[in-house]
Amino acid sequence: MPFHTQLRVRQQLYFDLLDAVSSRWAILIIEQLNNGPMNVNAICQRFQYVPRRVIESTLNHMQREGVISILANGRSQGGETVYSLTEVGQSAVAPVYALHTWARTHHEEATALAQGEANAARFFMMQDARNNHSAHDDIDIN
Asked: Domain HTH hxlR-type: where (predicted)?
């Protein structure tokens, strides 16, 4: 296999793991599982606004990437699988908390900047439309 292909494959594996710990729901799940093992119902109760299928899909992705595992006993009293963080998942806790804190800290600033950019783009589009309209007004069709 050529080197560039090998590099692409390694990068893809790296990004799969990164996605498994950095998606919005994965971050929240990691923060919850850091408090101890939980089943899907308990996780869903914490995030009632998130559809259960989204939580389950995120849990499956995180398990495939080795971030979480099913406990040895396998099932809770309610018959649902109990998840816990693996050592890899535990090692992601500090960076995940840092990312979450960073986002909370800079959210308003980033939103204001994005809004400012959107307003500037609208302003320049309106200016351009006015200039094009004025240029056509100057044309003498007689």
From this structure: 11-111
